Amino acid sequence: MFKLYIQALSLCFFFSVSLLSWSAPYFIEPALVKIPKGSLSLPHAPGEEKSKVHIPSFMVSKYELTNKEFALFVASTAYSAPTECVHEITGTWYSLGATKGSWSNNALNKKDYDPVTCIGWQAASDYAAWLSQVTGKSYRLLSAHEWAYAASAGLEYPFYHSAKGETDEGEDAAICDYANIAEQSAEREARLHYGALYKTETYNNPTLACDDGVGFVSIVGMYKPNPFGLYDMLGNITEYIKDCEPASDLNSDQTDRREFVCSKVGLKGGSWHWAPWPFERTNYLPINFIGSLEGTRLALDLVGEQSSKSVNVIGKRDKTQPNANGLSLDKQNELFEQGLANAQAEQRLSRMKKR
After folding, report:
1. Whole-angstrom Cα distance, residue 133 to residue 123?
2. Distance (Å, rounded) from C-alpha 178 to C-alpha 248?
3. What's the half-sphere exposure (Cβ side, CA atoms, 13 Å) at 67?
4. Rounded distance, CA 232 to CA 196, Å?
5. How far is C-alpha 54 from the geometric centre of its chain's CA atoms?
6. Looking at the predicted structure, is the pLDDT value of residue 154 above 70?
7. pLDDT digits (tens, 9 = 90+) for 60-96
8. d(Cα 181, Cα 172) in Å, to the nearest integer?
9. Is the dihedral of CA 347, 348, 349, 353 positive or negative?
């Protein structure tokens, strides 16, 4: 009885500290990787021939944005996040369309360290703007060219192949070491839990022959990083970028015939539901679409070498100033990484038991 009483007191203390922390500008800065300047052969627009695109150095978050990070944004700002989302799976996959659901209450992405979904492009952009405001830095979504360069690590051939060559990426088992994509576990789990099939007479979603032991979304950072040190660029969830779909009605001098209105926004990378997309491929969805396969990661502009380090921001929370819970930003980030490492260890154990 005494043990239960102590546990109850501990829980009360935990929640009181958590509630206090919401009153302060409490945030977690993402772990960042510095991407070296370089170039890659990419089309400047869909349908165009490839040409060398030069990319200046910038920084990218090592992981996809997580539920835990987004929760701090919502709590600190009382942000009104979407309350309907395409997330419920049936025997015909997502045929129900948008139903009641949100970033914190949807069918699949429920863990703290799962990538946040059901937010849409606008909320992803708003998160980046908020983090910029509270840190005094320039966080934003990546451009299509930046994303392709970062994901491919600047290589002209898929880095997960054992060597340069004509290997079909759909048959390359090594990709399951790098990405949570549609493979054998995805087929098994979808059929077992929802009666959903990847291949029918009317639906054909290719799956890979390899098996990573995961049927749906994974917590971030569970697979091998790419040569730049970035995780989950090939799969897990597709990632919103800052680009709008290019306007198709241009004058001969490439100026708009009308004022451009962004109605569709770009997405890069595959997901647990799709086979890997080519690095250069960009898909577009309506700007108001809210789904459970889409999330994001952040970029940070470099302004001299100091931008690659934590900096103190006058008038805003700096890395040494404690929050209401008495923790510095450095300590909060350290606890985030520790929590992620623990969650990864638990998920690895769970995967081993399934095999």
Report:
1. 15
2. 36
3. 20
4. 24
5. 24
6. yes
7. 999 999 999 999 999 999 999 999 999 999 999 999 9
8. 13
9. positive
Cα 349 to its chain centre, rounded Å, is 23
Mapped onto helix, strand or coil, the DSSP state of residue 37 is: coil
> Cα Rg for the chain, rounded, in angstroms?
21
Q: With 0-12 CB in 10 A as exposed, 13-18 as middle and 19+ as buried, what is 177?
A: exposed
The secondary element (H helix, E strand) that includes residue 187 is: helix 184-194
Asked if residue 332 lies in contact with residue 28, where contact means CB atoms within 8 angstroms, the answer is yes
Distance, CA of 30 to CA of 64 (rounded, Å): 9
What are the Cα distances from residue 252, in Å, to 161, 244, 248, 260, 297?
42, 21, 12, 16, 36
Considering only 96-100, 193-197, 243-247, which range has the smallest mean pLDDT? 243-247
DSSP state of 170: G
Cα–Cα distance, 73 to 212 (Å, whole number): 32
**Distance between CA 113 and CA 134 in Å, rounded?**
22
C-alpha pair distances (Å), 349 with each of 63, 115, 338: 21, 20, 17
Task: Answer yes or no: is pLDDT of 2 > 60.
Answer: no
CA distance 241 to 220: 18
CA atoms of 22 and 262, how far apart (whole Å): 34
Q: Is the dihedral of CA 325, 329, 334, 340 positive or negative?
A: positive
* Interval 89-138: pLDDT, tens: 999 999 999 999 999 999 999 899 999 999 999 999 999 999 999 999 99
Amino acid at the residue 269: G
Distance of alpha carbon 34 from alpha carbon 285, whole angstroms: 29
**Cα angle vertex 163, ends 64, 159, to 5°?**
10
pLDDT in tens, 323-346: 544 567 677 788 888 999 999 999
Structure tokens at 143: 């451009």
